[in-house]
Design brief:
heterodimer, A: 265 residues, alpha/beta, four-stranded antiparallel β-sheet, 26% strand, B: 348 residues, mainly alpha, 0% strand
Chain lengths: 265, 348
Amino acid sequence: MTAVEVTGLRVALDRVPILHGIDLRAEPGEWVTVIGPNGAGKSTLLRAVGGVLPATGTVRLFGNDLARMPRRQRARLVAAVAQSPVMPPGMTVFDYVLLGRTPHLPPLGRESAADLAVAGRVLARLDLSGFAGRQLATLSGGERQRVFLARALAQEAPLLLLDEPTTALDIGHQQEVLELVDELRHSHGLTVLASMHDLSVAGEYADKLVLLAGGKVVAEGTPAQVLTEELLADHYGARVRVIPGGRGPLVVPVRVKGEGRPDGP
Amino acid sequence: MAQRPGRVPVWWLLAGIGAVLVAGVAGLAFGPVRLPPLGVAAETLNQLPWVEVDSGLSPRQAAIVSQIRLPRVVLGLLVGAMLALAGGVYQGAFRNPLAEPYLLGVAAGAGLGVTVTVALRGQTGTSDLPLTVPLAAFTGAVGAVVLTYLLGITGGRDRSPATLILAGVAVSAFLAALQTYLLQRHIEVIRDIYSWLLGRLGGATWHDVRLLLPYAVVVAVVVLLLRRELDVLSVGDDEAASLGLHPQRSRYLLLATASLGTAAAVSVSGLIGFVGIIVPHLVRLLVGSSYRAILPLAMLFGGAFLALADLAARTVDAPREVPIGVVTALLGAPFFVVVLRTSRRVAV
């Protein structure tokens, strides 16, 4: 059964069309990363797949029609980490992660010992046990990102949506977070649908890349198929050199000498 | 680590109940007529069904307790509990530590309702406000909040909580303008209206208590049942939605319920400001950020706070009374500044 099957997805925000008929598939256990220039609709696509935006077209998650799924059932299938989530002032890491159990609680109910245990396990898995009593506001960027991830993992949903999970992080913490996601994907059998800006990093971690431009899918395939100098020039307006790398190709920006600076040295 | 965020710390719960008892007994014992505290306690027990104790008070003293001070203290506890509960709900639903029920036009609506009633009655020479005042205040408050919601919903697809606050500001300004116009036309009733606007528990009767009690019970039950949703809302609307909540629906339901409680409280007590800010904040400092612990405690401490503020209002300048709204504002305004400073520090 396909984990994510998006067909003809259209989304308009404030009557401005953002996505014009997107088709996208992700198989269970696969890591699919959406790339594209600013304003291409990456975040909108992820939010629509997560069911938090009204959309036309169909989104099926593990065979279930998203539009017909009750919210709580949906929340047990898909967990999302937004680009810059709200940090409730004064809330501790443990309480925040425990909120991830919401879709598993009976309506008006409270957390059981099992829910507390899940939150504790997730914190331990992400090396956050020592932070349980700390307030979110006191954490560093990398720690925060792990806490956001922990809340999503506490949902125990088989599909994880990550909207630019590493944008605020330095390169070391980027790798740390993405390695962690990759390990969790393998150990928990998660499907990951992410959006990313850094093309080399995106290519390094994804099984499949989807290049979005102007609200349409303009290319998809393995990193080597999508990260080509021609495609990136066409859709990003970028001059890059693509070098074969360890897993995916490496995208290096190059400057054409003197361009934009007629009087340059 | 396995501390559940939903649990109200037992010690603070006991402290809250203790504060209510202390405020209650103090409110009954002190006043223009000094009464023996033990007799007052016994007479209070006599009010309960199937209890019959000899309080040793004269019939006149007993009447002071049962007909004058007790309804006033009970009303103070109820109004304080409602205002503090509503304040906590507003702060959670708007994710804004400065939010208060009056932001959605409750005060302006109630003020206009009362002004219309009193102005239409015209000058009668008596200083008593007509019995229809609570009804008018209630209608005005609920009407204003409904107007704010409608404006907030149609205000575009921006779903941020700020839209609703802005709608409240617009509605408040509009209603306040109408009220000012009416006051200009009926300058003779301005004194009556201001005595109500400044808030008052003097002259409280069991009738007022009976008027407020059903609303208070319904509001408290609904809000306390839904209080976990406030914690979920605090992580953001998108996140709340992806956790299976209907954020907008939850927010509106909670706000409507809290507004109903405020309107009911305002209709019997007039406008009493700052309780909804002071109390939830102090409680937050004591027990942390979870609304599941904050709201029940805010009700207890809010009730105790207002009963004590009322005691101050009628004793500092005895036998005259200071309007209770003046007492809470004198305490609340400096507090507001402190909140503003600390919340700005957190935001940075």
